């Protein structure tokens, strides 16, 4: 049978990617490695272009989307006009269990993806492991990157806040009792107004009112704490770390606020975000995050596929007389 496609499989790595090029009939034409840099990407298109011109066939590419290492090559492949498929890592692992290889190397993994490509014409498991990457509106691509960045900053703020709160409990017992939440801005401004924590117990009323967010109410709370303030001996060296963490929390809060402004502005131009936002219960951040992760609904054959991608549909997890379900984890970022 005359081949109808040039099929390219890419085993994605952190610094280098393994590439296998073949035909629809399973014949492997070439295998090579490329670096994760501009010269490596140029080499990829140059070497793939040779069999494309020789056989005069369209090129389709399948690659993993592991830990974001596929970027920016995946975008360049789409812009080059090649059809791109994302390989589901879990289903690829299942495929390798059914059709095991003698060893585990990058070269073998690339050939396995090529084999998966070939069997996708006949085997449902292989077909389900390949998902065509549909072009997405640029505003949704921006929302994806910005909302993921926001999530990282929020998680970092939670970690730093928990660390600061634990240290504060040990170094200055009783100080946290004047606030219901250690992440309150007035409390953070109070903690960071002096480099030496022990000086907080000596601030006068005029100095307290000069702190942003500290009015009469909170100044009174601080003044009830000051006469009973106690500091552990390690405040001499641990106090500096608490102040640094406090300033980092404030900086993260500012960064998150700026990001949220950018996200809200871009979401106005996203039809998908506006549609999601029209559903009761969705706010500006959640609608933007969903629009960014979905990209375009054209990626999914039906509603069930979309629900599974978002981790909103449970899978059957039954055995014998036991009937149960298990949750699907959210997709890994490309």
What do you see in this structure?
The chain has helices spanning 38-55, 73-80, 89-98, 106-119, 124-128, 138-171, 185-192, 205-209, 216-225, 235-267, 271-277, 284-294, 303-309; strands spanning 6-11, 16-23, 28-35, 59-64, 83-87, 130-132, 315-316, 325-326. It is of the alpha/beta class and 334 residues long. It folds into three domains: 6-135, Ribonuclease H-like superfamily/Ribonuclease H (Nucleotidyltransferase, domain 5), CATH 3.30.420; 140-267, Helix Hairpins (Orthogonal Bundle), CATH 1.10.287; 297-334, no CATH class. Strands 3-2-1-4-5-6 form a six-stranded mixed beta sheet, with helices on both faces. Strands 7-8 form a two-stranded antiparallel sheet. β1 and β2 (16-23) form a beta hairpin. α10 crosses α12 (284-294). The longest helix has 34 residues, at 138-171. The mean pLDDT is 88.
Provide a brief overview of the structure.
The chain is 51% helix and 12% strand.
Give a quick set of tags describing it:
334 residues, alpha/beta, Nucleotidyltransferase, domain 5, Helix Hairpins, 3 domains, two-stranded antiparallel sheet, 51% helix
